């Protein structure tokens, strides 16, 4: 009997050991309640329902050990009928930022980087001498996107490889104004993330691309991933990317859609679906090979920012929180021609990766996530203490200093459309909190001032156009009638009209060039010209005021000249207010 007990005990011990070594059993139900065996059918039905606007899409659903579904839909190149498949490479866009934050946590684990230290400690002396506030910027501020930087558009995308600068120089070429005190407002910042990538370079002594290959790609056998602006760190990916065509959300072609991202840690990674899914699946593992200690992964997946003054997390060390049926963390991404999403549910250890060759795509990168994580509904995320607030709001991700300040002339009026927000004033800034960034309260007087200025400017432009047309007609009539007597101050008013029309034309030209991702040096002359024209407009206004007193004019002519002076001053004030002369903020 004792011998039998020993045998039974030995069998039980072996059973326990085997239980600890066999693969983890797959979750029968996904967080949405869908069986894992049915998710492929659901995704395929979803893709079929949206096939008319689908260019190419690939998706993978997994837990920490198992892949439940992998699918490829549509074309990497519709025109040449090249289907999406396991060798298709797609740009991650801003999901690349997760490589930065994982790198940061690796260096923190090694004691080489302090998340709450002033980042100036890791940068060359004077590198951040443009900051407005004395409050130090920490790595956590960069992770949470609340370092206070305004948006930067210039030279993020460049077409010519010769325009690619080393990361340190590329960041200095276009520094953003700091428009919020660190820690007060979440304003999504590519520049801030790229700065964190530079800090990884300075701390590790390696280029960011080399660091990621050594410490992330190679340990995970991600052999089909590239990161440098020209993708030259992986020739296979570089060649495969040439086969990919890109499309708009409606499926229409975007010609020649490949651009180099100069601040590449913020958005340049390009890979196959398998590599992207491998990265996501690895992050779910308790024995994650990217870290030496499990406690580091656990720390990375703890909240570092909250929605307003609530206890609802909004960010986990660079991973954004999305309120689907369950709390999802991850990151989406968009480039000039691709979109992607990596989403993780930590509790069930379930993840999903989506990749499309469509710019700004939202059907698969947003709506399809509900198949895995449940409906995007937020009532339960916001307790009764949430404030309902109507007002005037402006996205914190904007420009408030420099010649592109006109970008901030967009508002959200009334009550925010979706319930995914929390208002607060505890940190001195009234704001509405959304995933990926806040909207700040705009005082009514500022709203009225800005709209009033632009409205008056529009009147000034119309006045100038009509004035010029009338002058041309009058001039033609005089030529026909052979009248040569000059009208007092005629040249002055004509020049005033031309100057104002040229200003608007230059602004429109600059907008078109920036929208087409033109290199900043190609349109910087426009800002110089606007600065000169601003002085010309003021000079013409002053001349008109004093010269009109010295010449004999009819009442009608005096009234016309007076209106011309007012319109010149309106143009000058607008150019001053909207910073159209500040070429140093491009």
Structure summary:
By secondary structure, the chain is α+β, with helices and mostly antiparallel strands. It is built from 15 helices and 21 strands.
Layout of strands and helices, then pairs:
Layout: H1 2-19, H2 39-49, E1 56-63, E2 67-77, E3 82-83, E4 90-91, H3 97-109, H4 139-144, E5 157-158, H5 167-173, H6 190-204, H7 208-217, E6 225-226, H8 235-241, E7 246-247, E8 253-254, E9 260-261, E10 270-271, H9 273-284, H10 294-300, E11 305-306, E12 313-316, E13 319-323, E14 327-334, E15 339-345, E16 350-356, H11 370-373, E17 391-395, E18 412-414, E19 423-424, E20 431-434, E21 437-441, H12 444-481, H13 490-515, H14 520-547, H15 555-577
Antiparallel strand pairs: 1-2, 1-16, 2-3, 4-10, 5-9, 6-10, 7-8, 11-12, 12-13, 13-14, 14-15, 15-16, 17-18, 17-21, 19-20, 20-21
Structure keywords:
586 residues; alpha+beta; 9-stranded antiparallel beta sheet; 5-stranded antiparallel beta sheet; 15 helices; 21 strands; disordered N terminus
Strand content: 5-15%
Largest sheet: 9 strands, antiparallel
Rg on CA atoms, Å: 29 Å
Measured between the Cα atoms of the first and last residue, the distance is: 87 Å
Which structural class do the helices and strands define? alpha+beta
Q: How confident is the prediction overall: mean pLDDT?
A: 90
Side-by-side strand order of the widest sheet = 3-2-1-16-15-14-13-12-11
User: Would you identify the regions where 5 or more consecutive residues have pLDDT less than 50?
Assistant: 1-24
User: Based on DSSP secondary structure assignment, what is the total number of beta strands?
Assistant: 21
Counting H and I runs of at least 4 residues, what is the number of helices? 15
Envelope shape: elongated
The helix fraction, in percent, is 25-40%
């Amino acid at each position: 009997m004792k011998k039998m007990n020993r045998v039974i005990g030995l069998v039980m011990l072996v059973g326990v050991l085997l239980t600890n070594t066999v693969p983890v059993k797959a979750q029968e139900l996904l967080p949405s309640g869908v069986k894992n065996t049915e998710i492929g059918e659901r995704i395929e039905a979803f893709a079929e329902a949206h096939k008319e606007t689908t260019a190419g899409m690939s998706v993978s659903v997994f837990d920490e050990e198992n892949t439940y579904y992998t699918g490829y839909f549509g074309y990497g190149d519709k025109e040449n009928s090249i289907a999406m498949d396991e060798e298709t490479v797609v740009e991650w866009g801003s999901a690349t930022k997760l490589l930065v934050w994982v790198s940061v946590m690796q260096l923190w684990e090694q004691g080489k980087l302090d998340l709450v230290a002033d980042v100036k400690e890791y940068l060359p002396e004077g590198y951040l001498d443009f900051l407005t506030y004395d409050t130090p910027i920490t790595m956590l501020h960069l992770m949470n996107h609340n370092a206070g930087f305004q948006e930067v558009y210039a030279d993020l995308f460049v077409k010519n490889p010769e325009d690619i600068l080393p990361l340190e120089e590329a960041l200095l070429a276009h520094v953003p104004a700091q428009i919020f005190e660190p820690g007060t407002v979440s304003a999504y910042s590519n520049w801030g993330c790229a700065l964190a990538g530079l800090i990884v370079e300075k701390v590790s002594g390696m280029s960011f691309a080399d660091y990621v290959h050594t410490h992330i790609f190679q340990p995970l056998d991600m052999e089909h991933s590239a990161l440098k602006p020209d993708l030259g760190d992986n020739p296979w990916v570089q060649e495969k990317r040439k086969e990919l065509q890109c499309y708009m959300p409606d499926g229409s072609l975007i010609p020649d859609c490949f651009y180099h991202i100069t601040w590449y840690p913020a958005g340049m990674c390009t890979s196959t679906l398998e590599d992207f899914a491998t990265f996501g699946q690895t992050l779910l593992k308790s024995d994650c090979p990217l870290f030496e200690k499990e406690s580091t992964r656990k720390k990375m997946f703890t909240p570092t920012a909250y929605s307003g003054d609530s206890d609802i997390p909004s960010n986990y060390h660079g991973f954004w929180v999305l309120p689907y049926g369950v709390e999802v963390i991850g990151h989406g991404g968009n480039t000039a021609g691709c979109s992607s999403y990596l989403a993780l549910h930590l509790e069930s250890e379930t993840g999903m990766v989506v990749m499309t060759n469509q710019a700004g795509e939202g059907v698969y990168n947003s709506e399809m996530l509900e198949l895995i994580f449940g409906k995007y509904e937020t009532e339960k995320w916001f307790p009764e203490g949430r404030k309902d607030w109507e007002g005037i709001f402006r996205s914190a991700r904007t420009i408030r200093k420099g010649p592109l300040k006109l970008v901030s002339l967009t508002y959200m009026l009334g009550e925010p459309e979706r319930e995914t927000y929390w208002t607060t004033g505890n940190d001195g800034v009234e704001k509405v909190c959304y995933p990926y960034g806040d909207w700040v309260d705009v005082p009514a007087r500022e709203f009225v001032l800005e709209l009033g200025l632009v409205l008056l400017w529009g009147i000034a432009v119309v006045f100038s156009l009509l004035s010029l047309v009338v002058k041309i007609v009058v001039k033609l009539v005089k030529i026909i009638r052979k009248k040569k007597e000059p009208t007092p101050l005629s040249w002055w008013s004509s020049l005033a009209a031309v100057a104002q029309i040229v200003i608007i034309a230059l602004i429109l030209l600059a907008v078109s060039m920036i929208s087409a991702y033109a290199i900043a040096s190609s349109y910087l002359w426009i800002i110089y010209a606007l600065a000169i024209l601003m002085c010309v407009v003021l000079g013409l206004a002053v001349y008109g005021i004093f010269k009109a007193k010295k010449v004999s004019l009819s009442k009608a002519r005096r009234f016309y000249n007076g209106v011309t002076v007012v319109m010149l001053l309106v143009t000058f004030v607008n150019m001053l207010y909207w910073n159209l002369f500040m070429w140093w903020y491009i």
